[in-house]
Every structure is written in structure tokens, then in C-alpha cells.
Design brief:
- This protein has three helices and 22 strands.
- The two termini are 22 Å apart.
- It is mainly beta and 459 residues long.
- The protein is 6% helix and 53% strand.
- The protein has a single domain (52-458), classed as Porin, CATH 2.40.160.100.
């Protein structure tokens, strides 16, 4: 532990005094970063040499390297509403990511990324999402073809992260300690204001030991995603289809094989004072002989007062997410969020988006350069009385058979973010969850206090 802290401190000092400049901010998908423009950079230093190392005289063949180190302290009072073992000290989550990106001209590249994550001081046995000693997180190859008028076609095969839309359905799962990936084949077409993708994949199930996240056939995932930008009035639109097969799925109304199809659309704009993200989708298929008919609708809008002190941004988000209407019939109406971001309702990650009605106002203040304060308030109800509540990974927390109450609880959160430069990120967060009628009927129903501190270095 001392060695890990010393390593982080050393890296923080190095980057604090480094005069290295880079062409753009780091991206959530690190393989989307392009450092080829450093080929013309005459002010080379040790850092830019790691981001662009030419392997040929003309510089068209090059290697780029980078990484991510994150330390996160978490402490719960009454974790899982009092069901989890008591922990007076909290625990530390650590995550290390390191990647190498090799380009051979404009038509071929390979990207390899290792991931190592640990949960230190946790009373309960860490889950594979919290702890994975060392594994091959990504390893894929691209074959690209460029056409006229900014057209590009890319074939991508191998282990890779997937991210689509607002990450309500397909995300990198950056909030939890272990990010998620897929063994996939993907076809990507880009043309100015269009982007279209087709893919077929198998979900990579995290395991806790070294290089044991092997190829599995238990969960298959495929789909198509189309994005159109610069549309009059609505600005941007997404249309998509996702297919999911799971050998072992479990809901409050049973367990068995699941074949689910999701079709939806989204309109959004994030560039102006008014920002909005409106999404709706419908799901159908078969679960253990039952007919799937599920849906969700979400509206997320905000307005930023850019000419006011603190540049406050006031927002409100509402979601309707279907739940099962009746036990022991031939239908299942429980919505499956597929592979969403882990911290769906904040870093505390108590409840997942299934059988839920959520109203979520928020306020963000720009206190100074790189310093932001966010406050939000979440109210949760069950959509259906005949279905339980689920975690972010669609695991059943409490069955709906234990109570007829709809009210789940209220969540009060605040977090302070500080980004002094593009390399460093700091965050402290406090959340109070006041349990309501359903949780008090179904379990111990104690109120939860959550505190967390995060320090992250990207390079």
C-alpha cells in the first residue's frame, strides 16, 4: 500500500512540473485519441515521446502509450440499508490501466490495454467488479479504408470497450473499479455528419485472478447504431437496435434463458445554454417461456446561466422504467438496461434502472477555473407493485412479494470536482439515502450515509 501511494505521489509531482503539451483532452475511450499530429511537433520532450514514438523514417508507423491510475476511498454507514457487515473504517479501491497503440500507416493499427484493480480493506469478499488482479482488458486490430468526401470504413476485431449514446444501455462502466469490455467484431462507417456501426460480441465476465477473463459464450450481445448530427431543430439523433442472449438470467418472476431485442431512439444537444437528452425504447423477446414486453422513457434537460456569477446550471431528469405487471403469468415487463454505466444514480450505485420511476433535479456551480460543485436530489418509486428493485447490474435486491408499497426512498447527494489540468482529477462526494416504505418492509430499511474521495491521474 505504501509503495502504491509513493508511486502516485511521484507521478503527481512529475506531471505538475511537466511542460508537456498534448493536442487534445483525454477521451473516455482511450483508443479514440489521435497523436499523429505530434509528427510535426519540433518541441519534443520525454512525455510527447511516449505519446508519439516513430518507428519508420516517414513517421507513418508509430507507437503511442498511456495509462490511468485511480485511487478511491469509500465509506458506508448502513451499507445495503443495514444488510451488509458493519465497516467503521471504509475501504480503498485502486485501478491501474496501461495501453499501447501501434499504427502501421493509415490502414492498420492494434490497441492493447491491461487492467489491474484491487479492493483494500473491504470487510465483505470483494466482487470481480471491485477486484481483478491483472487481465487483458482490450486487444483488438483495425483495418481501415479511407474514401472520398471524409468517408471512412473500419473493421475492428478483438477485445474492446463499447460505448453508445448517453451510456444508458452500453457503457464502459467507469464508475466501478473494473471497466467492462467485449470480445467483438465491429464494422464502423463514418461520413461527415453520419456514423453507423454494426457489431457482434460476447461479454467479458470479470474474474478476480491473473489473466483469467477468458472467452465465454454465456452472454452474447449484438446490434446496430446510427448517429446523425447537424439536423435542423433537433440537432442530433440516434437510432439503434440491440440484441441480447443470456444463458442464465434472473428476475423477480423467475430464472432461465433470455433472448431480448431493444429498439429505440434518442434526440440530444449539449452545445448551447439549453441542453437536452430525450430517449425512449421498447424491448421484446422471450424469457424462460415468457413473452417480453418492456420499455423506458427518459427526459434529461438543463439550462446554464453562463452570464451569471458561478455559471449555475439547473437541470431535471425524469425516467419511467417498466416493471413486471403480474407474477406467474406468461409475460415479463421488467426492463433490462443491458450494460449501463455502473454509477447510474451517482457513485454510491444503490439502485439500478429497472422497475423504477425517478425524478432527479440538480444544480451545478462553476466556482472557479476547474472547480465545480454539484448538488442533486433523487426520488425513487417502484413502477410496478408486482416486481422488485434491482441493482445496476440487474441483480435482484429485494423481491416485490415482500411489500405492496411503491416508495423506495430519497437520495441527497453533493460532490466537489477539481480538475487543475488535463492530467489530474479530484472528487469528494457525500450521499444521504433516506429509506422509505418499501425498503422498510422488504429488509432492515436503514438510512445510508456514503462518503467517497477520488484522486485520478491520466497520461
Amino acid at each position: 500500500m505504501i509503495k502504491q501511494i509513493a508511486t502516485l505521489q511521484l507521478l503527481l509531482v512529475v506531471f505538475h512540473y511537466s511542460k508537456a503539451q498534448s493536442p487534445a483532452a483525454f477521451k473516455q475511450l482511450r483508443y479514440e485519441e489521435d497523436y499523429s499530429i505530434l509528427q510535426q511537433d519540433s518541441s519534443r520532450n520525454w512525455y510527447t515521446a511516449t505519446k508519439f514514438k516513430p518507428l519508420s523514417k516517414n513517421g507513418n508507423t508509430y507507437l503511442s502509450m498511456g495509462g490511468d491510475i485511480r485511487y478511491q476511498y469509500q465509506r458506508f454507514t448502513n451499507e445495503n440499508w443495514g444488510e451488509a457487515p458493519k465497516d467503521n473504517d471504509g475501504f480503498i479501491l485502486t485501478r491501474y490501466l496501461a495501453h499501447a497503440d501501434f499504427h502501421a500507416g493509415k490502414h492498420f493499427r492494434t490497441f492493447v490495454q491491461l487492467q489491474s484493480s484491487f479492493a483494500n480493506g473491504k470487510v465483505a469478499q470483494p466482487s470481480p467488479v471491485d477486484e481483478n488482479e491483472l487481465d487483458l482488458h482490450q486487444a483488438f486490430a483495425d483495418v481501415a479504408f479511407a474514401g472520398r468526401n471524409a468517408q471512412a470504413l473500419t473493421i475492428r476485431i478483438g477485445r474492446q470497450e463499447l460505448l453508445y449514446g448517453s451510456q444508458r444501455l452500453v457503457a464502459v462502466r467507469d464508475g466501478p473499479n473494473n471497466r467492462q469490455s467485449f470480445d467483438a467484431a465491429r464494422l464502423i462507417y463514418a461520413h461527415r455528419t453520419w456514423n453507423a456501426q454494426l457489431f457482434y460480441s460476447r461479454f467479458v465476465q470479470s474474474k478476480q485472478l491473473i489473466f483469467d477473463d477468458g472467452f465465454t459464450n454465456n452472454t452474447r450481445f449484438w446490434g446496430a447504431y446510427l448517429v446523425k448530427n447537424k439536423i435542423p431543430v433537433i440537432h442530433n439523433a440516434d437510432i439503434y437496435y440491440f440484441g441480447l442472449f443470456k444463458k442464465n438470467a434472473k428476475f423477480d418472476d423467475g430464472a432461465g434463458k433470455e433472448l431480448r431485442h431493444s429498439m429505440g431512439g434518442r434526440i440530444w444537444d449539449t452545445q448551447k445554454f439549453w441542453r437536452y437528452d430525450i430517449e425512449g425504447l421498447y424491448q421484446f423477446g422471450d424469457f424462460a417461456g415468457k413473452q417480453i414486453t418492456a420499455w423506458t422513457f427518459s427526459v434529461n434537460t438543463s439550462y446554464k446561466f453562463a452570464n451569471t456569477a458561478g455559471k449555475p446550471e439547473a437541470g431535471i431528469k425524469t425516467e419511467l422504467i417498466s416493471g413486471d405487471a403480474q407474477y406467474e403469468d406468461n409475460k415479463l415487463q421488467t426492463f433490462n438496461p443491458l450494460f449501463p454505466r455502473g454509477g447510474y444514480f451517482g457513485l454510491v450505485s444503490l439502485i439500478g434502472p429497472a422497475n423504477l420511476v425517478d425524478v432527479h433535479p440538480s444544480l451545478t456551480l462553476d466556482l472557479s477555473r476547474g472547480l465545480y460543485l454539484n448538488m442533486d436530489y433523487d426520488i425513487f418509486w417502484r413502477y410496478s407493485r408486482n416486481d422488485g428493485i434491482y441493482g445496476p447490474n440487474v441483480a435482484l435486491i429485494y423481491s416485490g412479494k415482500k411489500s405492496s408499497q411503491r416508495s423506495i426512498g430519497r437520495q441527497y447527494s453533493t460532490h466537489l470536482e477539481y480538475m487543475p489540468n488535463r492530467f489530474l482529477y479530484f472528487r469528494c462526494e457525500f450521499t444521504w439515502f433516506k429509506a422509505s416504505d418499501f425498503l422498510q418492509d422488504a429488509g432492515m430499511g436503514k438510512n445510508i450515509l456514503f462518503a467517497a474521495g477520488t484522486a485520478q491521474l491520466r497520461f
